Amino acid sequence: MRIIGGKYRGRKLDIVGKDTTRETADMVKEAVFNMLGGTLHGTILDLFAGSGAYGLEGISRGALFAYLVDIDIDAIKTIIHNAKKMNETANVSIHHKNYTQFISKLDSKVTFDYVFLDPPYQMNVYEEVIKLLKPYLLEDSMIICESKKDVILPDTIDTLEKIKEKTYGIKRISIYQKKG
Predict the structure, then answer these.
(1) Residue 134: CB partners within 8 Å, gap ≥ 6?
(2) 82 and 59 Cβ atoms separated by less than 8 Å
(3) Could you tell me the residue ranges of all domains in the chain?
(4) How far apart are CA 112 and CA 65, in angstroms?
């Protein structure tokens, strides 16, 4: 696994290497960032981060800051190692928490431009998480959901509208954008 684009293009990332963590293939990650326009800005939340690949790719492509969150200690160790390899420890905040713990402790001043949701496939928590994150989303924020291809998410969730959706093998990518 590697960084696909931006200032760290080609940099190899370590993987968690456990059955409980599913790494996103470089081809899928590249397609996701192409759907987002290639260059990012602002702040990223990579919830269920695994190795931190989505958040670190976002940093490589211009995002200013990334919150990387995972409940698995081996994932956290991998994220720390990958951030150090990229010399980006100052631009990331790494949290060893489950998603509800992290969201419930967020400062009301924290906002996200991009949120990557890639939970374990048996956890169908997309709608719940999106609703919990609504107060922390800026207008035009995007939420990128990676799920099994047979999981069909609704066209709208609260004030977020599904703007893109594609399948890649066994995965479905659904992108929502906050309106108004």
Answers:
(1) 158, 159, 160, 178
(2) no
(3) 26-128
(4) 10
Q: pLDDT tens digits for 84-107? A: 999 988 999 999 999 999 999 999
Q: What count of other Cβ atoms lies within 10 Å of the Cβ of residue 125?
A: 15
Determine the Cα–Cα distance for residues 121 and 71; give it in Å rounded to an integer. Answer: 15
Question: What is the residue whose two structure tokens read 């960084």?
Answer: 3
Q: What is the largest CA-CA distance in the chain?
A: 41
The residue type at 22: R
Are 162 and 155 spatial neighbours (Cβ–Cβ below 8 Å)?
Answer: yes
Give me the sheet containing 137-148, strands edge to edge.
92-96, 65-70, 43-47, 112-117, 137-148, 171-178, 160-168, 156-157
Hunting for tokens 């059955």 — which residue is that?
Answer: 19
| Model pTM score | 0.93
Which CATH fold topology does 26-128 show? Rossmann fold (3.40.50)
Scan for tokens 């390899």, then name that residue: 85
